[in-house]
Amino acid sequence: MSDGADGVDGVDDTGALVDELRVDPATARVYAEGWQSWSPATWHPVTASGRVPAGTWEHLMRFRPGTPVTTEGVQGEGLVVVDPGPGAPARCYGTTDPVAVPTVRTTLRGDVLLVRSTGPVDVSEHPDGESALAAHGDALATTVPRPLTPPSVWCSWYRYFEEVTADDVLEAVRDLDVRGLGVDVVQVDDGWSPGLGEGLRAAARFGSLASVVDGVRSSGRRAGVWLAPFLVGAGTTLARDHPDWLVGPAGRNWGQPLVALDLTHPGVQGLLTDALHRLLDLGVDYLKLDFLYAGAVPGRRREDVDGVAAYRAGLRLVREVVGPDVYLVGCGAPILPSVGLVDAMRVSPDTFHEGGEDGSTGLRGLMPLAARAWQQGRLWVNDPDCVVARPSYSQRGRWAQAARRFGGLRSFSDRLAELDPWGLATVHDLVATGGRTAPFGADVVREAAVLAQAEGTR
To answer: Which of 36, 39, 200, 328 lies at a 20 to 30 A Cα distance from 371?
Structure first.
């Protein structure tokens, strides 16, 4: 059907027409929420179009799988806010249902903005765009438990990547003590295990996870580990032995295609439960849950539910198994379907990928981190990802400032012996100030919105 030519029932292939409003094309702006942690989220000029995936893999791993991405106008998943321009109230189009998450799209026709949605949304008016986001966050927050105080974290990833060893982590524990850094959690990231598809055992190259956990706890700190619980590699033992536990493609990493697990299958539920209990029995009480988007990919499941319902059931199972005192950080996680089930949420892509250690790729996460400032203290603690304070990272000053200004979780990822005086002072200050559970004030959210829109137009 041609653009703007809806059928008599108001429906076309982009959804039902839910509103049309007059806007000032020169000043109006649109906020579009991304599907998951790594998805674009920002304020756009009303004349702009949103970002689109570069290929199938990026659609699977950074956008909403199975949902077309518009190349004209702006698209949000579960939430769009329109600020029409000077003197006009902002309108919020959103849902507070974490399972029925519609896709909302806007299209500009002259000075009229058409808003369509693939499912029901609540429409409300607010004095401005930032207050609209805050009000929507407050409505969602009614289902969120009182947030736990976020710990400060040392993470292995941005220094050791997949080559981390037990000795590397234990060196960090000793150096934290030597330098008087009161870090609460020492978190072992990816690299300690071949993954869930191979039984989630510690890799021989890594060494003993039990000895690492004991060393961390003996220092008076909490032990954390990284886990990608909702997918496996297509070439793993589990994928070969249990094809009926698999749903469909989930991207590519670790040198192989990824496949999503069926979170409604009793075998998968038992696997997750056993793996989590083994980590709990070691003394782990901080879990970074990564690549969670896989739980919601389209595909046939044992139970006749869609991907979002399956995802939320799987994440709820994790929460029930580990209990309320284990700190859960979601990453690569569908935003709205995770509300109420994690303590902290990565609201941006990785600080950098392997190969970008010098900072030459810029600040990949600044735009969504700033855009999602309204979520802090309402939906969860915002995790901006790790500060990297060593001299070789050219973006270290700007990123440390942004992470402190717009994040709630405080973490860093360096070998302490490699830090210069500036780096040591920065991580000391990061740890000393502690995390944040409260929402940001309206002034910070406004500042963040301006920054996010500016970053989005780069």
So the answer is: 328
* Total-model pTM: 0.96
Strand partners, 12: 15
Taking the C-alpha atoms of residue 45 and residue 19, their distance in angstroms, rounded to an integer, is 18
H helical segments located in 264-360? 266-282, 307-322
Residue 207 tokens, joined: 């060494």
Give 104-123 pLDDT, tens digit per residue.
999 999 999 999 999 999 99
Separation between Cα atoms, residue 393 and residue 390, nearest integer Å: 6
What is the CB neighbour count within 10 angstroms for residue 357?
18
DSSP string, 111-141: TEEEEEESS--EEEEESSHHHHHHHHHHHHH
Cα 297 to Cα 64: distance, rounded to the nearest angstrom: 8
Could you report the per-residue pLDDT of 308-335, keeping only the tens digit for each?
A: 999 999 999 999 999 999 999 999 999 9
Segment 162-215, tens digit of pLDDT: 999 999 999 999 999 999 999 999 999 999 999 999 999 999 999 999 999 999
261 by Cβ neighbours in 10 Å (0-12 / 13-18 / 19+) ranks as: buried
288: phi then psi, degrees, rounded to nearest 5? -95, 110
Which whole number is the average pLDDT over 249-258?
96
HSE (side-chain half, CA atoms, 13 Å) at 41: 31
> How far is it, in rounded angstroms, from Cα 68 to Cα 65?
8
C-alpha to C-alpha distance for 400 and 417, rounded to whole angstroms: 19
- Specify the 3-state DSSP secondary structure of 7: coil
Report which secondary-structure segment, H or E, holds 334: none
So what's the pLDDT on residue 13? 55
Pair 348, 373: CB distance under 8 Å = no
Instruction: Output the CA torsion 297→302→306→311 (10° steps).
Output: -60
Burial of 111 (0-12, 13-18, 19+ CB in 10 A): middle
Containing 444, the helix (H) or strand (E) segment is helix 442-456
- The encoded tokens of residue 182 equal 């009161």
Strand partners, 435: none
**Hey, what are 449's tokens?**
């919105």
Mean pLDDT of the chain: 95
Q: What structural domains does the chain harbor?
A: 11-141 (no CATH), 152-456 (3.20.20.70)
Q: How many whole angstroms separate alpha carbon 457 and alpha carbon 86?
A: 21
